[in-house]
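Ticket #4471: structure output looks truncated?

Reporter: J.K.
Steps to reproduce: submitted the chain below (352 residues) through the standard prediction queue, then opened the result file.
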Amino acid sequence: MKKVILTIAMTAVIMLTAKAQSHTHTVSNDGSGGAQFTTFQAAMDASTNGDTILIEGTNINYSVANLTKQLVIIGMGFNPNKSNPRRAKLGSNQFQLHTVANGSTFYGVEFTSTVIFFEGIANMDFEDCLFDLAFDCGNQPANNFVFRNCIFLSSEQDVNFSTNSANNNILFVSCVFNGRLEFNTNSAHSVTIDHCLFFGDNFHCLSSARGQVIQNSIFMNTTDLTIGINTADEHFNRNNTFTNNIGRLSIDPNPAGNTSSGNLHDVDPLFVSTGTSTYSFSSNYHLQLNSPAINAASDGSDIGPHGSTSHFSETGEVLITPIIRSLNINNTSVAPNGNLNVTIHATTPTDH
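Returned output as attached by the reporter:
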Protein backbone atom coordinates (compact mmCIF):
# COMPACT_ATOMS: atom_id res chain seq x y z
CA MET A 1 0.00 0.00 0.00
CA LYS A 2 2.91 2.40 0.58
CA LYS A 3 3.89 2.10 -3.09
CA VAL A 4 0.34 2.91 -4.18
CA ILE A 5 0.15 5.97 -1.95
CA LEU A 6 3.53 7.18 -3.16
CA THR A 7 2.55 6.82 -6.82
CA ILE A 8 -0.68 8.74 -6.34
CA ALA A 9 1.11 11.43 -4.34
CA MET A 10 3.76 11.81 -7.04
CA THR A 11 1.01 12.26 -9.63
CA ALA A 12 -0.67 14.93 -7.54
CA VAL A 13 2.60 16.81 -7.00
CA ILE A 14 3.42 16.84 -10.71
CA MET A 15 -0.05 18.07 -11.58
CA LEU A 16 -0.18 20.81 -8.99
CA THR A 17 3.32 22.24 -9.21
CA ALA A 18 2.81 23.01 -12.92
CA LYS A 19 0.55 25.87 -11.91
CA ALA A 20 1.41 27.31 -8.53
CA GLN A 21 -1.50 28.45 -6.39
CA SER A 22 -4.04 27.12 -8.86
CA HIS A 23 -6.69 24.47 -8.42
CA THR A 24 -7.11 21.11 -10.09
CA HIS A 25 -10.55 19.83 -11.03
CA THR A 26 -11.47 16.35 -12.24
CA VAL A 27 -14.24 15.46 -14.67
CA SER A 28 -15.67 12.17 -15.89
CA ASN A 29 -18.77 11.61 -18.01
CA ASP A 30 -18.72 7.93 -17.10
CA GLY A 31 -21.24 7.38 -14.30
CA SER A 32 -18.76 5.20 -12.42
CA GLY A 33 -15.87 7.65 -12.81
CA GLY A 34 -15.97 9.17 -9.34
CA ALA A 35 -14.70 12.60 -10.44
CA GLN A 36 -15.74 15.97 -9.03
CA PHE A 37 -17.80 16.86 -12.11
CA THR A 38 -19.71 14.91 -14.73
CA THR A 39 -19.52 17.53 -17.51
CA PHE A 40 -16.64 19.60 -18.82
CA GLN A 41 -18.83 22.70 -18.73
CA ALA A 42 -19.42 22.28 -14.99
CA ALA A 43 -15.67 21.84 -14.38
CA MET A 44 -14.92 24.96 -16.42
CA ASP A 45 -17.61 26.96 -14.60
CA ALA A 46 -15.97 26.06 -11.28
CA SER A 47 -12.51 27.03 -12.52
CA THR A 48 -10.66 30.33 -12.54
CA ASN A 49 -7.90 31.40 -14.90
CA GLY A 50 -4.80 29.23 -14.45
CA ASP A 51 -6.64 26.20 -13.09
CA THR A 52 -6.17 22.65 -14.37
CA ILE A 53 -8.90 20.27 -15.53
CA LEU A 54 -8.08 16.55 -15.60
CA ILE A 55 -10.33 14.72 -18.07
CA GLU A 56 -10.89 11.02 -17.54
CA GLY A 57 -10.61 9.03 -20.73
CA THR A 58 -14.00 7.43 -21.33
CA ASN A 59 -14.35 7.35 -25.15
CA ILE A 60 -17.60 9.27 -24.55
CA ASN A 61 -17.56 12.74 -26.08
CA TYR A 62 -17.40 15.64 -23.62
CA SER A 63 -19.82 18.00 -25.30
CA VAL A 64 -18.66 21.60 -24.95
CA ALA A 65 -18.90 24.46 -27.42
CA ASN A 66 -16.66 27.24 -26.03
CA LEU A 67 -13.47 27.64 -24.06
CA THR A 68 -13.90 30.85 -22.10
CA LYS A 69 -11.10 30.68 -19.50
CA GLN A 70 -7.34 30.29 -19.51
CA LEU A 71 -6.90 26.67 -18.43
CA VAL A 72 -4.55 23.71 -18.48
CA ILE A 73 -6.52 20.76 -19.86
CA ILE A 74 -5.07 17.27 -19.53
CA GLY A 75 -6.42 14.12 -21.18
CA MET A 76 -5.06 10.61 -21.73
CA GLY A 77 -3.29 10.91 -25.10
CA PHE A 78 -4.48 9.72 -28.48
CA ASN A 79 -3.40 6.06 -28.26
CA PRO A 80 -2.33 5.23 -24.68
CA ASN A 81 -0.70 1.87 -24.02
CA LYS A 82 -2.62 0.68 -20.97
CA SER A 83 -5.11 -1.95 -19.91
CA ASN A 84 -8.13 0.28 -20.58
CA PRO A 85 -6.97 2.72 -23.30
CA ARG A 86 -9.93 5.07 -23.39
CA ARG A 87 -9.34 8.56 -24.79
CA ALA A 88 -10.51 11.98 -23.56
CA LYS A 89 -12.70 13.30 -26.40
CA LEU A 90 -13.65 16.96 -26.40
CA GLY A 91 -16.00 18.84 -28.70
CA SER A 92 -19.51 19.67 -29.87
CA ASN A 93 -20.62 20.90 -33.31
CA GLN A 94 -17.64 23.26 -32.99
CA PHE A 95 -15.10 23.88 -30.26
CA GLN A 96 -14.60 27.64 -30.16
CA LEU A 97 -11.59 29.39 -28.61
CA HIS A 98 -12.03 32.94 -27.29
CA THR A 99 -9.55 35.65 -26.35
CA VAL A 100 -10.37 35.17 -22.66
CA ALA A 101 -8.83 31.69 -23.08
CA ASN A 102 -5.51 33.07 -24.35
CA GLY A 103 -2.60 31.24 -22.72
CA SER A 104 -4.38 27.89 -22.43
CA THR A 105 -2.55 24.58 -22.81
CA PHE A 106 -3.93 21.22 -23.95
CA TYR A 107 -2.24 17.89 -23.26
CA GLY A 108 -3.45 14.55 -24.60
CA VAL A 109 -6.90 15.67 -25.77
CA GLU A 110 -8.78 14.36 -28.80
CA PHE A 111 -10.83 17.08 -30.52
CA THR A 112 -13.81 15.44 -32.20
CA SER A 113 -15.16 18.63 -33.80
CA THR A 114 -13.61 21.52 -35.70
CA VAL A 115 -11.54 23.78 -33.43
CA ILE A 116 -12.21 27.36 -34.50
CA PHE A 117 -11.91 30.97 -33.36
CA PHE A 118 -13.50 34.17 -34.68
CA GLU A 119 -11.27 36.64 -32.82
CA GLY A 120 -7.51 37.00 -32.53
CA ILE A 121 -6.04 34.28 -30.33
CA ALA A 122 -2.55 34.10 -28.81
CA ASN A 123 -0.28 31.92 -26.69
CA MET A 124 -1.89 28.51 -27.18
CA ASP A 125 -0.06 25.19 -26.75
CA PHE A 126 -1.28 21.81 -27.96
CA GLU A 127 0.78 18.75 -27.02
CA ASP A 128 0.06 15.10 -27.81
CA CYS A 129 -3.37 16.02 -29.14
CA LEU A 130 -5.45 14.43 -31.89
CA PHE A 131 -7.57 16.51 -34.26
CA ASP A 132 -10.30 14.49 -36.01
CA LEU A 133 -11.40 17.48 -38.09
CA ALA A 134 -10.00 20.90 -38.99
CA PHE A 135 -8.25 23.57 -36.94
CA ASP A 136 -9.60 26.85 -38.36
CA CYS A 137 -8.57 30.40 -37.50
CA GLY A 138 -11.88 31.81 -38.83
CA ASN A 139 -9.97 34.49 -40.80
CA GLN A 140 -8.52 35.90 -37.58
CA PRO A 141 -4.81 36.31 -36.70
CA ALA A 142 -3.02 33.82 -34.50
CA ASN A 143 0.14 34.54 -32.57
CA ASN A 144 2.46 32.32 -30.53
CA PHE A 145 0.90 28.92 -31.21
CA VAL A 146 2.73 25.64 -30.61
CA PHE A 147 1.60 22.25 -31.88
CA ARG A 148 3.88 19.53 -30.52
CA ASN A 149 3.49 15.78 -31.14
CA CYS A 150 0.00 16.29 -32.59
CA ILE A 151 -1.83 14.32 -35.28
CA PHE A 152 -4.27 15.88 -37.77
CA LEU A 153 -6.49 13.23 -39.35
CA SER A 154 -8.58 15.17 -41.87
CA SER A 155 -7.72 14.26 -45.46
CA GLU A 156 -8.66 17.75 -46.64
CA GLN A 157 -7.94 21.04 -44.85
CA ASP A 158 -6.30 19.99 -41.61
CA VAL A 159 -5.14 23.43 -40.48
CA ASN A 160 -6.37 26.74 -41.85
CA PHE A 161 -4.41 29.85 -40.92
CA SER A 162 -5.80 31.75 -43.88
CA THR A 163 -6.20 35.35 -42.71
CA ASN A 164 -5.55 38.77 -44.20
CA SER A 165 -3.32 39.50 -41.20
CA ALA A 166 0.05 37.87 -40.65
CA ASN A 167 0.26 34.93 -38.27
CA ASN A 168 3.33 35.20 -36.07
CA ASN A 169 5.40 32.58 -34.26
CA ILE A 170 3.50 29.43 -35.25
CA LEU A 171 5.43 26.21 -34.60
CA PHE A 172 4.57 22.69 -35.71
CA VAL A 173 7.10 20.19 -34.37
CA SER A 174 6.85 16.38 -34.68
CA CYS A 175 3.31 16.59 -36.05
CA VAL A 176 1.58 14.31 -38.57
CA PHE A 177 -0.81 15.54 -41.27
CA ASN A 178 -3.18 13.58 -43.47
CA GLY A 179 -4.39 16.76 -45.16
CA ARG A 180 -2.98 20.23 -45.75
CA LEU A 181 -1.89 23.38 -43.98
CA GLU A 182 -3.39 26.41 -45.65
CA PHE A 183 -2.34 30.04 -45.34
CA ASN A 184 -3.32 33.33 -46.96
CA THR A 185 -1.44 34.40 -50.06
CA ASN A 186 -1.59 38.13 -49.20
CA SER A 187 0.57 37.94 -46.09
CA ALA A 188 3.89 36.53 -45.05
CA HIS A 189 3.65 34.29 -42.03
CA SER A 190 6.20 33.49 -39.35
CA VAL A 191 5.75 29.71 -39.36
CA THR A 192 8.21 26.90 -38.66
CA ILE A 193 7.44 23.30 -39.62
CA ASP A 194 10.04 21.00 -38.11
CA HIS A 195 10.38 17.18 -38.00
CA CYS A 196 6.87 16.65 -39.34
CA LEU A 197 5.32 13.93 -41.51
CA PHE A 198 2.95 14.70 -44.40
CA PHE A 199 0.73 12.22 -46.21
CA GLY A 200 -1.02 14.78 -48.44
CA ASP A 201 -0.60 14.73 -52.20
CA ASN A 202 0.04 17.67 -54.54
CA PHE A 203 -3.31 19.28 -53.70
CA HIS A 204 -3.37 18.35 -50.02
CA CYS A 205 -0.09 19.13 -48.38
CA LEU A 206 0.91 22.79 -47.91
CA SER A 207 -1.00 25.60 -49.56
CA SER A 208 -0.28 29.30 -50.14
CA ALA A 209 2.72 29.48 -47.85
CA ARG A 210 4.98 32.53 -47.83
CA GLY A 211 8.08 33.17 -45.74
CA GLN A 212 7.96 29.87 -43.92
CA VAL A 213 10.68 27.49 -42.72
CA ILE A 214 10.03 23.84 -43.59
CA GLN A 215 12.78 21.58 -42.32
CA ASN A 216 13.64 18.01 -41.32
CA SER A 217 10.28 16.73 -42.50
CA ILE A 218 9.06 13.81 -44.61
CA PHE A 219 6.64 14.13 -47.54
CA MET A 220 5.11 10.79 -48.53
CA ASN A 221 2.89 11.58 -51.53
CA THR A 222 3.65 15.00 -52.98
CA THR A 223 5.83 15.63 -56.03
CA ASP A 224 5.91 19.40 -55.58
CA LEU A 225 7.79 21.19 -52.80
CA THR A 226 6.31 24.43 -54.11
CA ILE A 227 3.55 23.67 -51.69
CA GLY A 228 1.26 21.24 -53.37
CA ILE A 229 -1.21 23.32 -55.37
CA ASN A 230 -1.61 23.68 -59.11
CA THR A 231 0.90 25.41 -61.40
CA ALA A 232 -1.33 28.43 -62.03
CA ASP A 233 -1.17 29.29 -58.33
CA GLU A 234 2.53 28.57 -57.94
CA HIS A 235 3.39 32.26 -57.57
CA PHE A 236 1.60 32.30 -54.23
CA ASN A 237 4.27 30.07 -52.72
CA ARG A 238 7.30 32.30 -52.35
CA ASN A 239 10.17 33.04 -50.01
CA ASN A 240 9.95 29.75 -48.14
CA THR A 241 13.02 27.87 -46.97
CA PHE A 242 13.13 24.09 -47.43
CA THR A 243 16.00 22.41 -45.59
CA ASN A 244 16.89 18.74 -45.10
CA ASN A 245 13.50 17.30 -46.04
CA ILE A 246 12.83 13.90 -47.64
CA GLY A 247 10.32 13.28 -50.42
CA ARG A 248 9.39 9.63 -51.03
CA LEU A 249 8.45 10.58 -54.58
CA SER A 250 10.46 12.60 -57.06
CA ILE A 251 10.37 16.25 -55.98
CA ASP A 252 11.96 19.29 -57.61
CA PRO A 253 14.98 19.88 -55.31
CA ASN A 254 15.05 23.61 -56.15
CA PRO A 255 11.46 24.86 -56.10
CA ALA A 256 10.90 28.14 -57.92
CA GLY A 257 10.69 31.25 -55.75
CA ASN A 258 11.96 29.45 -52.67
CA THR A 259 15.28 28.53 -51.07
CA SER A 260 16.18 24.86 -50.94
CA SER A 261 19.15 22.94 -49.55
CA GLY A 262 19.95 19.45 -48.30
CA ASN A 263 16.65 17.95 -49.49
CA LEU A 264 16.41 14.35 -50.74
CA HIS A 265 13.85 13.45 -53.37
CA ASP A 266 12.70 10.11 -54.76
CA VAL A 267 13.96 8.53 -51.53
CA ASP A 268 11.97 6.18 -49.31
CA PRO A 269 12.43 7.15 -45.62
CA LEU A 270 12.15 3.44 -44.71
CA PHE A 271 9.82 3.40 -41.73
CA VAL A 272 9.67 0.17 -39.74
CA SER A 273 6.12 -0.49 -40.94
CA THR A 274 3.64 1.78 -42.67
CA GLY A 275 1.30 2.26 -45.56
CA THR A 276 1.79 5.36 -47.68
CA SER A 277 -1.71 6.84 -47.98
CA THR A 278 -2.73 8.02 -44.48
CA TYR A 279 -1.60 7.84 -40.88
CA SER A 280 -2.37 4.55 -39.13
CA PHE A 281 -2.21 3.77 -35.41
CA SER A 282 -1.10 0.24 -36.27
CA SER A 283 2.01 1.41 -38.13
CA ASN A 284 5.46 2.02 -36.71
CA TYR A 285 7.00 5.32 -37.84
CA HIS A 286 10.42 4.69 -36.36
CA LEU A 287 13.20 4.41 -38.91
CA GLN A 288 14.88 1.26 -40.11
CA LEU A 289 18.60 1.03 -39.40
CA ASN A 290 19.45 1.72 -43.05
CA SER A 291 17.08 4.67 -43.42
CA PRO A 292 18.51 7.70 -45.29
CA ALA A 293 16.75 9.89 -42.68
CA ILE A 294 19.03 8.80 -39.84
CA ASN A 295 21.26 11.66 -38.63
CA ALA A 296 20.28 13.65 -41.75
CA ALA A 297 18.39 16.53 -40.10
CA SER A 298 19.86 20.03 -39.97
CA ASP A 299 20.60 19.56 -36.25
CA GLY A 300 22.22 16.15 -36.75
CA SER A 301 19.20 14.22 -35.49
CA ASP A 302 16.91 12.00 -37.58
CA ILE A 303 14.53 13.49 -40.14
CA GLY A 304 10.88 12.88 -39.29
CA PRO A 305 8.67 13.06 -36.18
CA HIS A 306 10.82 10.83 -33.97
CA GLY A 307 13.97 12.87 -34.62
CA SER A 308 13.18 15.99 -32.63
CA THR A 309 13.69 16.58 -28.91
CA SER A 310 9.93 16.74 -28.32
CA HIS A 311 9.68 12.95 -27.85
CA PHE A 312 6.98 12.01 -30.33
CA SER A 313 5.36 8.65 -29.65
CA GLU A 314 2.63 6.71 -31.46
CA THR A 315 0.93 6.35 -28.07
CA GLY A 316 0.44 10.10 -27.70
CA GLU A 317 0.83 9.66 -23.97
CA VAL A 318 1.01 12.88 -21.99
CA LEU A 319 4.64 13.46 -21.06
CA ILE A 320 4.08 15.49 -17.90
CA THR A 321 2.43 12.75 -15.79
CA PRO A 322 3.05 9.11 -14.87
CA ILE A 323 0.87 6.62 -16.75
CA ILE A 324 -1.18 4.11 -14.75
CA ARG A 325 -0.91 1.01 -16.96
CA SER A 326 -3.25 -1.16 -14.91
CA LEU A 327 -5.24 -1.08 -11.68
CA ASN A 328 -6.60 -4.19 -9.98
CA ILE A 329 -8.82 -4.42 -6.89
CA ASN A 330 -7.69 -7.51 -4.99
CA ASN A 331 -10.57 -7.87 -2.55
CA THR A 332 -14.06 -7.16 -3.83
CA SER A 333 -15.65 -7.00 -0.37
CA VAL A 334 -14.40 -4.89 2.52
CA ALA A 335 -15.51 -5.10 6.13
CA PRO A 336 -16.36 -1.85 7.93
CA ASN A 337 -13.12 0.00 8.69
CA GLY A 338 -11.28 -2.62 6.67
CA ASN A 339 -8.65 -2.17 3.97
CA LEU A 340 -9.22 -2.17 0.21
CA ASN A 341 -6.20 -3.81 -1.39
CA VAL A 342 -5.33 -2.32 -4.76
CA THR A 343 -2.45 -3.14 -7.09
CA ILE A 344 -1.38 -0.31 -9.41
CA HIS A 345 1.24 -0.56 -12.12
CA ALA A 346 2.47 2.86 -13.24
CA THR A 347 5.42 3.95 -15.34
CA THR A 348 6.82 7.00 -17.01
CA PRO A 349 5.06 7.80 -20.32
CA THR A 350 6.29 6.37 -23.59
CA ASP A 351 8.43 9.13 -25.08
CA HIS A 352 9.93 7.54 -28.19
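Triage note (M.O.): checked the attachment and the full C-alpha coordinate line is present. DSSP finds two helices and 31 strands in the chain.
Status: closed, working as intended.
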